[in-house]
Amino acid sequence: MSIKLLERDIKALLIKHLLEKSIIEKGDTLINEFSIDTHTRRIDLLALRKNTTIGFEIKSEADSLTRISGQIEKYKNYFDKIIIVAAKKHIPHLLQLVEPNIGIWQVEDSSFIVIRKGRSTPVKVKENLLKLISLNFLIKIAQSNNLNVPRYSKDRKSLEALLSKLSTSKIRVELHLYLSEKYKIYSSEFMLNFGNQNNYDSSALALLSPYSENRLLIKTRNQKTFETLRKLTEEYSDEANHIVVKPPSTKLQNPVESLDDSLKIIA
Hints:
Blueprint: H1 7-20, E1 29-36, E2 41-49, E3 52-59, H2 68-75, E4 81-87, H3 91-97, E5 103-108, E6 111-116, H4 126-130, H5 135-144, H6 156-163, H7 168-193, H8 213-241, H9 255-266
Parallel strand pairs: 3-4, 4-5
Antiparallel strand pairs: 1-2, 2-3, 5-6
């Protein structure tokens, strides 16, 4: 009897398989739930491998294929290779729906079968490559390439037009540098923990995303702590500003009387 796997279970098994088959290495960058096209689409797993982007879309038994055609059309604009990892029941339909250059893998009983290998088609449209890069990093690229751009420019459209003067290969290198810088810390942390003591549990996937629930909880807690400290600092500052310092008495006290008074209290 085959095991019914959920998407997160398939994803954990997939990463294990990719590492064991050396399709990716520990030093490569993995990105969980990567958004494109102004966040209207999100691929399940993205791997940066030797200056190539490999996108994996997962379809478990619980998923439908109603959106797959639209998803693949978008993914082709941004990723060099796309592989659909699907439950057995989806395979016949996928073979009809998806063009030959898209890879199709079947998952069943925790193992993977390559139904269609697919092929890599490097993205060459500069506009698509640049759209995956943040505005601040676009400015950084322009400055490092001696392109005339105001340091604090916020006009993304003008920046993309300016950077289109660079070669496609140069933009691809910059894109991979940007993605690596942004996601490497999460990918490295995940790689260090995933598979320890032969544990490939899907819970480790939380480490792979800067937007995971655990990370958001930690961020929220830190923000609350900072806000509390800020309020305490402000209150202390206000109190300090309102302290009234009484001037010293102009009446000089007799040292002898003062000593006598002190001795009376002690007695």
